């Protein structure tokens, strides 16, 4: 199960006991137009980040998102208290740049 949609929309069968702060919130709110790494968060990103700031499962959400995104470029939206640009930078620091997987037939 990936955090490709709002975490609140997911079943929490393998998650922590606490409910996420984004439970019941429109998933679109967590996919704002992304700001660049050099810029601060946009107003829309700050709105999503405010939910994350008070979320009891924030660390779990962030770790899970980073672990499950095998390709840095697929990290989108706000998760785990970080906007897209910050999670991508963290992903690169942690794992290095991951190129998209290409099947042998494509090479
Ligand atoms: S950290 Fe943010 S995106 Fe993750 S579950 Fe909590 S509110 Fe939702």
Automatic annotation (TrEMBL):
UniProt keyword Iron, yes or no: yes
Tree of life domain: Bacteria
GO terms for MF: 4 iron, 4 sulfur cluster binding; DNA binding; metal ion binding; protein-disulfide reductase [NAD(P)H] activity
InterPro entries xrefs: 4FE4S_WBL (IPR034768), Whib (IPR003482)
Cofactor(s) this protein cannot do without: [4Fe-4S] cluster
GO cellular component, as recorded: cytoplasm
Primary location class: cytoplasm
Location of the protein in the cell: Cytoplasm
Protein's recorded name: 4Fe-4S Wbl-type domain-containing protein
Entry keyword Cytoplasm: no
Pfam family membership, one: Whib
Source organism (scientific name): Streptomyces sp. EN27
Keyword list, A-Z: 4Fe-4S, Disulfide bond, DNA-binding, Iron, Iron-sulfur, Metal-binding, Plasmid, Transcription, Transcription regulation
Any one GO BP annotation for this protein: negative regulation of DNA-templated transcription
Taxonomic classification: Bacteria, Bacillati, Actinomycetota, Actinomycetes, Kitasatosporales
PROSITE patterns in alphabetical order: 4FE4S_WBL
Family: Belongs to the WhiB family.
Domain (4Fe-4S Wbl-type) ranges: 21-89
